[in-house]
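quick one before i forget lol
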Amino acid sequence: MAAEQWLISFITDYISARKELQESVTSRGEIPRAVCECCPVGHPRRQFLDELTQSEMSIAKRAAREIKRYGIISLSRQDAQSDVYLKCRKPIREICPDPKSLQREVGEMESKDDSGRTVYSYVVPTYTEAYQQSFLRRIIAAFDGGILQCPHVVAQLARGGSARAIARRLRREEYVYEESMPGAASSEDRLQWVQYLFLCCTKCCSEMQKRACANALEFTGYTYNNDRCNWKRALFMQMLREIDKHFNVVGGRYSSRIVIQPDDVLVSFSSWYDIEDDLIRSVDPSAVVIFGARKDMLPLLKFKVDVVCIDGDSVIRYDSDRQVEGDIGKIIEHLVTHLEPYCEEARGTDHDRYNEAMARIGQDLGFVHELEYPNKRTRIDCVWLDREGGVYAAIEVETKPAFKKDIVSTWEVEPQLAIVLSHARNDDGIMFLSEYVLMKSIPHPFLAVNTQTKRLYFFRGQELACTEALCTPTQDDSHVEEM
């Protein structure tokens, strides 16, 4: 594997760190500040609580009075050049001391909230008299982003009550929406810090001291639900920075894919987000890392690229340079010597243990296996996939003597080899395949294994080519009978 020297070791360390941090997140809702700083998709992104100075506190107290007086819902500005956006429950004519300038200076829109009450929305240019003569200017001068309130304070004010709020400074990294910026080499150059006056209740203040976002985690009564928090992705990025690995986000700042430089490792954090063919060709990665299940690796096999799949705490590796074993004789030899030992090591029902053993044998031979492979309205117990993602071997595991239907079901996926495991007191059913008419037309070799008599039979059409006894854990060798 091209990136094996550092990548596998890094992923192992990441899984260990993720498991350790998971306890802190779910039980206490605490996320280290260094991890929050790497959050790429937080909403809002990278928030931090800071104490106010005395002058800022006086402005905050005035702002709190004005919020209550005029029913201000939000006050915001995205950057130093943009207008001020104001939502409140009273007309701006009551806020601005010069109502004559309103018609020519301020954009106004009236709407209704969920309760049917009137809400006024305004766009106030900062160069106008309406802005300069209002209290908005003093707030924006100290807090260029405007005012944010936690949902608990908003709810209390909406009911007409008095909200006891803690005033804090909240900083947030914003994107400057301009077509071009002098000297901007990349999208990262269009990011800037914006400060907000954040009025929050004691609970939200306490929660934000544990992490960057107040509402990213939801306390369910026993633990914190972190489905809305991207701390696992942020931890991955933070650990990359710790080992001096640079990365670029692919497809916009909220994309779930990054490219680690200079190794050209493509990482996809979302299992449901397909990696487009054009992306693989343009990045030409040395390896692809995906978070998901083994089946999510399958579309990537055709690109001849190393794949690492992080499935929970398991790491599944696919080495594109490794050759698959296509010699039927060696496949039979490996199956005979390893089926029973692997089955002994597996857990579960007989069906599950033999299924897992066959999957493991396929992996030993260089194939990528998939369990419960979809086939029309049914599923094949296990398949071995070649380097093109095609089905090399289709495998069915039966815990009963009957298996003829499995000959048809494996045939339907057009494999190069079919393997059926059955469980019968004798091998009469398998020997009857020499007279089974359907076997005349079967285009691929067929292996039948009786897991009770511990014997394998290899058919080419109706012809029985050889039979071999399985090596059990107490056996040292096997005997082959040529037919």
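fyi DSSP finds 14 helices and 24 strands in the chain.
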